Amino acid sequence: MKKLLFFVCLFAGTNVLFAQTDASAKYGALITGSNLNKHLSIIAGAEMEGRETGTEGQRKAAAYIESQFKAMGLKPVEALKGYQQFYPLYQDSLKTGELSFAGKAAVYGKDFIINMNSNETGSFKGKKIVFAGYGIDDEKYSDYTGLDVKGKIVVIFLGEPKKDGKYFLSTTSRSSAWTFPGIPKKLEAATAKGAIGVLVINPAQETFNERAVASGKKTGVYYPRVATAGKTLNFAQLSHKNKKTIVGNNFDTLLKIIKANGTIANQWKTESKTKIAYKFEKYRNTINASNVAGVIEGTDKKDEYVFVTAHYDHLGMRDGKIFYGADDDGSGTVAVIQMAEAFQKAANEGYRPRRTMVFMTVSGEEKGLWGSEYYSENPFFSLDKTTVDLNIDMIGRTDTERTTADTLNYVYVIGHDKISSDLPIINEGANNKYTNLVLDYKFDDPNDQNRIYFRSDHYNFARKGVPVLFFYDGMLKADYHKTSDTVDKINWDLFEKRARMIFHTAWEMANRNEMLKRDTPLNMGTR
User: Fold this and answer.
1) Is the predicted pLDDT of residue 15 greater than 50, yes or no?
2) For the chain, what percent of residues have pLDDT higher than 70?
3) Which of 80, 48, 78, 74 is closest to 63 using CA atoms?
4) Which of 188, 194, 306, 323 could pair covalently with 150 via S-S, beta carbons 3.0-4.6 A apart?
């Protein structure tokens, strides 16, 4: 009797497994080239004006994606009370920019400029200037050794030193955070040492060109990243005109050392008595952008999450010409819409996923991964309970540099050997069962010169420890970031096949017993 019961249970379990497998095939088949074309013709159409973040075109695209999520029955995000996660962007314009040396006013745009993205309205006055080399304070190298800058104004150069052909601080050929982001870190160091203001010299910028002067009077739209806790000082960037006033008669010698990435000896770190007054005021306009998300609630594992993402923004318009962004990343956007529709249809017919599915399209990717960065810092679902992010950025075309026989049957997969050892097993299994694409891992090479791993929105999940896979066609040469990235260039059969493969991968990850393991180090360094 016990043996009979065992076989009955085994048969029942096998039937459930086959039902799930058959369901994946059934609902994956709803993703078709014709349906992708229908959505892409709108997303990458002229009405969307290139979907530049912070513009009316981006807002139109967001409204369209939201309308599709609503129509197919996806739920809004409860914490947002809707489908859109809004985040602020700033655009600043100069009201007051004043700097004087010994009572003599410097000329804005000629003698100095003020970076509005990195300065807040404020002022400082001082009677003493201290030249502090590169302005670095690190256990490996410090320009502040033996210097007293408390209550004084610090003068620093951009850059950092090298030793034996490698950067002193990183010990590699790649510069450290003292170069990029650079200034915020140097301001933080100066603040910690008690300085009241900072003057910055770019060794490569003797004078300011028209573009630098214009950006010092009005910024483009930018994402207001959270400032470091110690960053309170304002600064001005100086031309080389007032070099003697700044660092005495040694400027030319110092400039040669800095341009050669040499170390700055203490003998050069001088203090002088010069009255300096600085005043800065700006007007700030706040513009909202948004991420658009729709949810299909899971069953027994509904408090765990599978994200499927793509960025819906592109480059907008330049000189009246539209950058349509059909492949980049209209293709990813409409793939997300189609997958959401397929999962929702399955849920309506009794095949609801075990984990909660989150379909999210983000903006600001082309500007610097703004939307996904905002989400990673302000998640509406736990990142610890997010089992994976499957990110799609350009899957509608082919890599013109690829000359192998599989040119019409491949996709680049990035992230397969990072964070979770489960990733390639599940993805390859789904692909082998349903689509038989060639999965190319070349961009997972830590020495990838294109640094593709860091160039799309999955990175902001990965840096928080969430396993990610990024699907990409490699179209970097042909029409990348050109007005000619249009709908008519899409390979619909290949696009369909890639989208289905990602769907089947998501289906397995949503329905398996365990969340993906987090057991593999991230071997790509930092962005």
Assistant:
1) no
2) 94
3) 48
4) 194
What 3-state DSSP class applies to 408? coil
- How many other CB atoms sit within 10 Å of the CB of residue 524? 22
pLDDT at 291 over 70: yes
Distances (CA, A) of 444 to 32, 183, 416, 508: 29, 31, 8, 23
Considering the entire predicted model, what is its pTM? 0.85
Residue 20 has pLDDT above 60, yes or no: no
Q: Is the pLDDT of residue 247 over 60?
A: yes
Amino acid at 527: R
List the beta strands (DSSP E) in 210-263: 235-238
Compute CA 200 distance to the chain's CA centroid, rounded to the nearest angstrom.
27
Residue 393's closest CA among 376, 371, 424?
Answer: 371
CA distances from 184 to 177, 225, 297, 392 (A): 9, 11, 42, 32
Strand-pair partners of 429: none
pLDDT over threshold 90, residue 295: yes
Mean pLDDT over residues 299-315, rounded? 98
